[in-house]
Amino acid sequence: MTNSNMSDKKIAVIGGGIAGASIALYLSEIGLKVDLFEKGTSLVNGPPICHLHAGGNLYREIPDEQCVTLLHESIEALRLYPDSVDYRPTVIAIPAQDAGQPLDLLPRLSLLQDEYQKLIDKDTNNKVLGEVTDYYRLFEQKELQALALLDEHKIPKTAEQWMIPFAKHTDLSLVKFPVVLVQEFGWNVFRLGATAALSLEKNALCNIHLNSKVTKLQQNQQAQWQLHCIEEDVESDYHFDYIINAAGFKTGDIDDLAGFHRDRLVEFKAAYVTQWQGTEGLWPEVIFHGTRGTPQGMAQFTPYADNLVQLHGMTDKITLFEDGLVESSKFSSQPKLDASFLRKIDKGWLEKEITIRGQRAIDHLSQYIPAFKNAHVAGKPLFGAQQIPGDDASLRTAGISFEGNNYARCEIVKASSVLTCADALTEKLAELGFVDQHKVGARLFPITDSIEDEAITERSELYTQQRGYPIALAYRNIKQS
Ligand SMILES: Cc1cc2nc3c(=O)[nH]c(=O)nc-3n(C[C@H](O)[C@H](O)[C@H](O)COP(=O)(O)OP(=O)(O)OC[C@H]3O[C@@H](n4cnc5c(N)ncnc54)[C@H](O)[C@@H]3O)c2cc1C
Question: How many domains does the chain fold into?
């Protein structure tokens, strides 16, 4: 395969979320011509991403195998998008009334620590979560009580310093011991979108079609695709050699257009933006485990700049919604969400919905951190519908699948799976002769690597403003691990 015929092949990516934008970025960086179609006005403007699941420790219910995959994929994603990561740890606490035991978490943490070491042995550039010995640290009651007497830090440097706000402000009588601190970092969706957009805009091999909704797909005998779309209100037709469906929770609609069937679930969820002037120092993320879908579902406290805190509460009244999880049928690959969810996605939330659910999220969290009661709702929720291929709603790792000739889906559950998808896709494209074999898994991103932190911040500020969120969501508290 030579460079000259490589660029003859034309690839369409449908959907400019983190999956489609990252696939377009990957393929155009290795020399393929890509057209990216996004029906919205900017890239990566779908459901939120706030946590880099480097070990899957938020999910007690998933198998170890998925946690190991999440660790690998998160390290890879962090290496691709380092300036989108807020390098602060996560505290994991088990409430006293929960059936789980903290010591049940330990075998998995130890497995993840070993896996992290193996990844570093393979490539020292994988050492992005700090020292292996520091991957997690346990805190017993006595140590937390002692830490509660110390001053909080504006920029915590040690595991102990990170634990001070938690020790000081959590009602320690309500949690079991030990409490875990783990190196799962924050992930900023605005910065992620900004990095991908800036890279793609700089790459002459990528055509970005914004405000372009794909409405028809047709394949001819030679396996070439005709793609019909409404682009800025104008109907247009294009021809492509390969179609990649990365349409997020609308993946089923594109499958229907292409004539392929797949079972999948779609789930609508929301997180709430609050502001809390409560404390002096910088907080880690904090997770209070709980059984999903019950009134004591997991509570997640995700800190941002300017005392902003994003909250999840895994109960039907906060993050989850009655009838928010729907499945495809034998007639359509697209699960049908109720109109009330589509109205939120397409037109926004009513003020009273924001206030009621936001306040419930504050109440849920302040069971454990009483002073958090003073927080207030500080904007519209971060929300959306996400796709889950198959019929297992607890699946957290998923990726690429192929159908017929020259059609792939990149159907991710967590954003970190994007590079695994891109590698598998490149392998397929190499089999078809679209790209040189030596490019498979090469992962060279000269254009993306050249994007400056300042430019990312500037673009992220613009996205927060355009999308109606507080500007401080564009920033991160800690730039380096
Ligand atoms: C509340 C919540 C919290 C979450 N938190 C995290 C987290 O902390 N960490 C994490 O890793 N993941 C998280 N997720 C999951 C994460 O948001 C998704 O995995 C990710 O956004 C999926 O990206 P995507 O590119 O597949 O889909 P999307 O972001 O939905 O992108 C699909 C794009 O396709 C476009 N599109 C659809 N149809 C068409 C068409 N016909 N023509 C053109 N364009 C089309 C859409 O406009 C959209 O922009 C969370 C999800 C939710 C709901």
Answer: 2
DSSP 8-state code for residue 292: T
Q: Which protein residue has the closest C-alpha to ligand 1 atom 41?
A: 214
Q: Does a structural domain hold residue 233?
A: yes
CATH number of the domain at 72, please. Answer: 3.30.9.10
Measuring CA to CA, which residue among 123, 68, 28 is closest to residue 426? Answer: 28
Asked whether the whole model's pTM tops 0.90, one would answer yes
> Mutation test of ligand 1: which of 41, 386, 413, 463 has the most ligand atoms closer than 8 Å to its C-beta?
386
| 42-96 pLDDT per residue, tens | 999 999 999 999 999 999 989 999 999 999 999 999 999 999 999 999 999 999 9
Q: Using DSSP, state whether 229 is helix, strand or coil.
A: strand
Question: Which of 362, 386, 410 is a domain's end point?
Answer: 386
Whether 118 has a pLDDT exceeding 60, the answer reads: yes
| Same domain for 304 and 376 | yes
Do 247 and 396 belong to one domain?
Answer: yes
Ligand 1 centre to CA of 381 (Å) is 15
Domain that holds residue 37: 3-47+190-262+391-459
Best of 13, 38, 74, 213 to mutate for ligand 1, by most ligand atoms within 8 A of CB? 38
Please state the three-class secondary structure of 92-147 as a single string.
EECECCCCCCHHHHHHHHHHHHHHHHHHHHHCHHHCCCCCHHHCEEEECHHHHHHH
For 139-168, the pLDDT digits (tens) are 999 999 999 999 999 999 999 999 999 999
Which of 250, 298, 383 to probe ligand 1 with, by most ligand atoms within 8 A of CB?
250
Q: How far is the CA of 45 from the centre of ligand 1 (A)?
A: 7
Query: Rounded distance, CA 29 to CA 195, Å?
Result: 14
Ligand 1 pocket: which residues have CB below 6 Å? 14-20, 37-40, 45-51, 53, 187, 213-214, 246-250, 269-271, 383-384, 386, 412-416
Ligand 1 centroid from CA 21, angstroms: 11
Q: What is the CATH number of the domain that holds 400?
A: 3.50.50.60
- Tell which residue, 472, 399, 459, 465, has the closest CA to residue 43: 459
